[in-house]
Amino acid sequence: MFAYVKYEDKYKAILPISLVKTFSPKSDDDFDRTKKVQAFWRSDDGDIQGYYPAFVCALAGDLDTMRLKLKTMREPFPRIIDADEREEVPLRKRESEEPNGENVFVVELQKIIEKKEKENKSLKKQLREANALNGRLTRALLDKIEVARATAERQEGQVIAEFTLPSSLDAGTGLPKEMVEDVCDADMDGDATCLLPGSVVSDCSASIGIEVTHLEDYNGTFAPCDEQQQPAPAAAEPEAVALTTVPDDLYQVFGGQIKIGHNTFMPLDKWQYIMRNTKDGKFCLELARHFWPAAEAAKRSLTGQACRSISTDHVKLQATPEKVDMMKGCLQQFIENHVEPGRPAEVRLAAVRRYLSNFFTEAGRAGRRGHGTK
């Protein structure tokens, strides 16, 4: 049986099926045109010979039948390679017939190199796509940061009223301002003291530095004694706070974090953003939000004591003293970088307690409003 084959280099030939490796058809139609086989080839001068990749295009029992099939296929009759030609060729000319071990190793290496080159191209393509996506995300993030920054600057003048107006409680006495004014207007005479409960008289007398001795009357009211009033030690908190010395390692940057307290750090970009504020109240508000989240701030107050003007059953925790001290230190750094003529730094630093008190008050109101809407 003869086979009409086409080699990969477009050469064509007719040869016995014995010159085709691992090819044993049972009939003229028992072959696959798309399957690659190893077919023998020998040049006219006999210098080149061996088995090369080829495709079987037709099979025939004899040459006459093959000639008719090629005529039907409109193919020219190619060269015929006899089986005897392979035997006539010297053994030294069969170098390409069977590849040796070295050639097989080289072929395997070439296949590995081609595979790695394809993987390299695929990885380069993925890297280009990732870089393009990273660029788009970076630009979108920068745009959002600019929008947020512009919004914050527009709202800078619309700070919550509690952070701009003076506190409703007098900083020296801890009592409502109206009550303190009534006591002062009465010049602390005997009649005025009888109008106040004993606890209020005690608090007021301690705040103004005068000790008032009183006795309980038969009807349960308090009346002043005839003993001479003696001045008591001043208990009021000073209005100005002295500036402290900053340790050497405080407010230093360590790996993108700035140290703001003992074993306490803040991201440098967040610190720089907060330091861009121009008002002390706005600075303290944003810094307090960093130390106390909204849910935690609603449960705390500056001193942890019960409210003296409003009766409530809710007991709040005291603000952590260490965090309050860190707030003072950060505000001192802000004051040093934002000097305001006519406002002493000590007075500005003393206002940190008022800012914190207002912050916790507003956080508690927001928490109650949120709880009421559920």
From TrEMBL:
Q: Which residues form a coiled coil?
A: 106-140
Q: Does the keyword Coiled coil apply?
A: yes
Listed under GO biological process in this entry are: negative regulation of DNA-templated transcription
Q: Which organism is it from?
A: Rhipicephalus zambeziensis
Q: Name one GO molecular function term.
A: DNA binding
Q: Which residues form the signal peptide?
A: none
Phylogenetic placement of the source organism: Eukaryota, Metazoa, Ecdysozoa, Arthropoda, Chelicerata
Keywords recorded for this protein, A-Z: Coiled coil
* Name of the protein in question: BEN domain-containing protein
Keyword Signal annotated: no
